[in-house]
Fold:
Amino acid sequence: MRIQDTPEEWPVTATATPFTGNKTSVRTDEVEMPDGSRVNRDYQVHPGSVAILALDEDGRVIVLRQYRHPVRQRLWEIPAGLLDIPGENPLHAAQRELYEEAHVKAEDWRVLIDVYTSPGGSDEAVRIFLAREISAAEGERFEVSEEEADMELARVSLEELVRGALAGELHNTCLAMGALALQAALSGDGIDALRPADASWPARPFAA
Structure:
């Protein structure tokens, strides 16, 4: 049996936005249950994100280490960023983030995996790309600030990332999901079987 997520929307009888932040907000929906009862559901409204597992010619992944205040930890991550523009092509956003955070470009792009980070409490959707044929980007480095000004960059083998995720030593969602998805692809039908970089994304529709 093939299992697959399907669209569905239960009736919303009332909605409110008690908090609006710089990039995200919190919404409260009154949702009608199948039995007719009504309950409130609070969740974060998020523009969506992209992340990039960039693989160099030696099979190493570009990672960065950044302080994340909500969890009070400095986490190893892969380059990632918000879809700042409604309807933005996620590939273009990913190429921008790879340049800004790692100052590299890639010639070969594939969709690695699409995920909802926390569907019980947020509508954030993330598309994780696989980027290969890496080379240095032209021009000056992008000027970073705040937490990004303190980032460290490294290149680590895929095997080490998978080991660290399974050992409970690496916790970033995109890093863990990306590394495990690539390992699964390599052990299965191979990279050529991955979806193309412009594959449709119903969670965040975009223009070509």
Summary: The CA atoms of residues 51 and 128 lie 5 Å apart. The mean pLDDT is 94.
